Amino acid sequence: MLAGCATPPSDPAERAAFEQSNDPLEPMNRHLLDANLFVDRILLKPATQVYTTILPEEGRDALKHVLDNMKEPVVVINSVLQAEPKAAATSAGRFVINTTIGIGGLVDIAAKNGLDKQIGDFGQTLFVWGLPEGPYLILPILGPSNPRDLVGMGIDAYIDPFSLLATAKNIDQIQIARFVLDGIDQRARASDILDDLQKNSLDFYAQLRSLSQQHRAAELRRGAVPAPDFYQDPNQPPARSPSP
Question: Model pTM?
Answer without folding.
Answer: 0.84
